[in-house]
Amino acid sequence: MAVTHHIPHPQALRIVLHSLDLRANCYQRFVVPLLSISADFYVRVFVRVFTGQAKVKASASKQALVFQCVGCGAFHLQHLGKASGPSGGRVKFSPDCGPPVAPECEHCGQRHQLGGPLWAEPIHDLDFVGRVLEAVSTNPGRFHTSERIRGVLSVVTEELPDVPLYYTLDQLSSTIHCSTPSLLQLRSALLHAGFRVSLSHACKNAVKTDAPASALWDIMRCWEKGCPVKRERLSETSPAFRILSVEPRLQASFTIRDDANPSSRQRGLKRFQANPEANWGPRPRARPGGKAGGEAMGDRRRLLQNKRKEPAEDLVQRAAWLKTFPCKRFKEGTCQRGNQCCYSHRLPTPEATAEATSTNCPQTLNQSPPGPGATTGPGVD
Predict the structure, then answer these.
(1) Tens digits of per-residue pLDDT, 351-361?
(2) What is the DSSP letter of 21?
(3) How many CB atoms lie within 10 A of CB 302?
(4) Which strands form 63-69's sheet, in the order they lie side by side?
(5) pLDDT, tens digit (0-9, with 9 covering 90-100), for 163-174
(6) Residue range 154-158: mean pLDDT, rounded
(7) Most buried residue, 25, 200, 225, 340, by CB count within 10 Å?
(8) Is 220:74 a contact under the CB 8 Å cutoff?
């Protein structure tokens, strides 16, 4: 089960890898991920499957549960198993201890959601990615999307392999209701504090770092001091109030560093997915008649054009139209609006009643239907 709060794409990749490895373990096999990407509206993983009963026992130490706070989005991983022992010697496998968090979040006091299990190891083989990137770069005319492939694979090589999940820039700012720093400013602040940071190919505003959540919120507290949030507008139980009520222990520096700008960005590569055409995305389901998805969408768009826009109404014409209807309350003697009433206060005259009767009934009352022996038709008096 995925915790879809802010980080759905990396969790989807890792849940798929966990499912593949779990199914391979049933046949004394295990998987090694080569490349795992989230592109467009799907995830795609490339794995190699090996046979080895001894190494299958290590699969539990590669899986983890994720505890994520519903208030501030801080997450913690809980591995299902652990492998211990001297390097090169006999490895002992045992269940891991936990949980890594308290019932309430230490930063905002909200509860935690439990997600997973998911794959907690690296999801890319950098040697394999490097060979694919070299093959695409040496022969760019082989694929129509070679620029896009080069950009995505370049970001993959820049990702931190040992950091499974990430934060997003807009999520950090919206949690404490402050202005959003630029991506380079936040990356520089993390680098100044001595932490590692990278992007993620799955999200343009991702911040993948080995910094703990406490250091990340200290940096955001320092950023908020430059443009303070009005505390009187915050609820005392809100995550923003509780986070900002604590003074930062880390003094962040937002001076832009040269290494904060990744190489793929400096080279201007197409690093993230872009819509190749208008109305691009999942097409509507097939319709009877054999129309293509684009044609059906275009026909439906033309059919619904200005459907909810009512034409401008002529108030004078509407008032004259309402005056043709008699006022029911005036007939009962209870209408108190007088001339201000939008309905007519004139009683119908006998001539008008007779005219309406003759108009509504083309046959007069003294006419009777012809008998069975009567002859009707032209020329008959």
Answers:
(1) 544 544 444 44
(2) H
(3) 8
(4) 75-79, 63-69, 112-119
(5) 988 998 988 999
(6) 91
(7) 200
(8) no
The average pLDDT across 246-261 equals: 89
Rounded Cα distance, 212 and 194, in Å = 12
Q: What pLDDT shows up at residue 363?
A: 42
Specify the residue for token string 């820039």. 169
For residue 178, how many other CB atoms are within 10 A of its CB?
Answer: 20
In this structure, are residues 108 and 176 in contact, taking their beta carbons and an 8 Å threshold? no
Contact 240/72 with Cβ under 8 angstroms?
A: no
Tens of pLDDT, residue by residue over 329-378, are 888 888 888 888 888 888 766 554 454 444 444 443 344 444 444 444 44
The pair of three-digit structure tokens given for residue 139, joined into one six-digit string? 């022969």
Q: What is the DSSP letter of 141?
A: G
Q: Tell which residue, 218, 16, 242, 258, has the closest CA to residue 116.
A: 16
CA–CA dist 11, 30 (Å, integer): 20
What's the confidence (pLDDT) of residue 286? 65
The residues that bridge with 200 in the sheet, in sequence order, are 203
* DSSP code string of 160-179: -TT----EEHHHHHHHHT-P
Rounded Cα–Cα distance for residues 148 and 273 (Å): 8
Amino acid at 370: P
Provide the whole-model pTM.
Answer: 0.68
CA-angle at 321, arms to 315 and 322, nearest 5°? 90
Contact 141, 151 (CB under 8 A): no
* Bridge partners for 69 per DSSP: 112
Q: List, in order of start, the domains of the chain with CATH numbers.
A: 8-83+100-124 (no CATH), 162-271 (3.30.56.70)
Residues in a beta bridge with 5: none
> In 92-196, which ranges are E strands?
92-95, 112-119, 167-168
Q: Is the dihedral of CA 118, 122, 124, 128 positive or negative?
A: negative
Distances (CA, A) of 182 to 86, 101, 202: 45, 30, 19
**Residue 29 structure tokens:** 């096999």
Q: How far is residue 94's CA from residue 128's CA, in Å, rounded to a whole number?
A: 32
